[in-house]
Specification:
14 strands, 2 domains, 42% helix, Rossmann fold, 324 residues, homodimer, seven-stranded parallel beta sheet, UDP-galactose 4-epimerase, domain 1
Amino acid sequence: MHVLITGGAGMLGCKLAQWLIQDRMIGEHEITKLTLTDITTPKGLPKFQGIYAEHAMDMGDPGSAKKLIQQRPDFIFHLAAVVSGEAEADFEKGYRVNLDSTRYLLEAIRTQQDYCPRVIFTSTIAVFGVPFPNPIPDTHHRTPLSCYGTQKAIGELLLADYSRRGILQGIGLRLPTICIRPGLPNKAASSFFSGILREPLNGKEAVLPVSEDVRHWHASPRAAIRFLLHAASIDLELVGRDCNLTLPGLCASVKEQIEALERAAGKDAVSLIRREPDHFIERLVYSWPESFEAEKARSLGFKAEKDFDEIIRIYMEDELGAAS
Amino acid sequence: MHVLITGGAGMLGCKLAQWLIQDRMIGEHEITKLTLTDITTPKGLPKFQGIYAEHAMDMGDPGSAKKLIQQRPDFIFHLAAVVSGEAEADFEKGYRVNLDSTRYLLEAIRTQQDYCPRVIFTSTIAVFGVPFPNPIPDTHHRTPLSCYGTQKAIGELLLADYSRRGILQGIGLRLPTICIRPGLPNKAASSFFSGILREPLNGKEAVLPVSEDVRHWHASPRAAIRFLLHAASIDLELVGRDCNLTLPGLCASVKEQIEALERAAGKDAVSLIRREPDHFIERLVYSWPESFEAEKARSLGFKAEKDFDEIIRIYMEDELGAAS
């Protein structure tokens, strides 16, 4: 089985690749080839018996998808995207990378003969916009209030239509906000949810741009990789025609995040959090959902963390080398 | 005020143009220029003091929208579309005409300086897919089960995002199935809903491809024109950011349609309906919704007919010259 990951240099893409290189299986299928692509060359992964290829490619260029799909990968993890803050700030880039690239990919698949790969598409809870009930049921309409949410909601619709037509086997995952993201802050407006834990855990100062009563929907990077792998091997008959799923997550307030930080790393860590309200981020975050039923995804076996102590422990184990 | 109608040679486009030429007003605004465009040249309308232009243009060609928008119309009725049956049968054409043309139009508007026209976009109840509650509330998710529904649902998302960004003043209308459509049957899978009344009212045989217990959501062409005009003049502050509305309609079964036909034109007319089950159409129609709450649109003053007697009377008045 040949696996393709777009956005392979991103945080999730790298972690997924590491997992696949280690495990060499997707469900019952042995992985014999792995291709990663991103705008920069994905780096730092162990070689995989010479059958692992890296490409620097702009998926917003119509030729890129064609070239990748000519190799007929069996599983495609389509993770390539510009994050929310950047898609809002650069309208054209957001539409090109988050919408056009998805359409080019689906069209490249459609025009291959006798080919019907599994496509795992990462969507977002930002497809939902205020007002919403709390928790939000699976059947609640998608009325995004950001370019990023709009582009992902369109990707979902395309994925479902191409799947319905038998062009591909699509499954879309509305990921919770991933927390704690390792590495540096990114341009996502949600970046601080990780920053206020990650920086203090590394002895650094962090900025909190919103109030402590903000509640949000989280899952660890480890849960996200589990979601992607489960989506790759699940029986799509069980998923049905509405192939875009809101995934389970942990609903927690910033206050609860900080309390868990104190339990894990003490008061000194907490004192590294500096309050600095940012109205741009605050406005955006208040238009985001807090909590979901995620009934269908739960019934299909998708699982997230139960509390922030668990999320912090996962970060310490996976990123800081703490004993598990 | 300059008004542009895309799809101006279609049934709704023609009726709207006739109305605008007669009334010369949209709300408080006097119409000084009217441009119609379609794949064929719209014909048969009275001249409008020389300020009425017709263009044959393919809106799926990126240059068409640019050319039209350079004239900076104040009101744009974007009706151009390939109907449901055709969009399903010709995948590429459907995406080109129903999705690309909408995006080209919105992009042409975005790249004009200091310009923010009102854009009235016709969407469809086919953005909804089974399973659904009955009636369907305004907040029910859009999970279309046809290419046409998918393309229109994407158009809605684009319209809302471009409106949110202040690029245009968008309002999207999920029209009920228009009944009784005048003229010849079209390639829409819903065409028979009109045919079973229109053909007998004209002394002709009609084909009924589905069972009599099929229920559906209807409005007359006259109601549709009222919807479009109301959308053009309504205060968009009242509509809010979720600018795509499910419009009110009349929920009726095929049986109720036929009973109203008998009351209007007698048993002889009814005997002209020939049952000829068509599994392609039947399958498609069973995936369509029957009834909606349409709460928001009703509260904004949109109104449809109360029974099929009224819908038949409107057809007889507007198309067969019956006295009103």
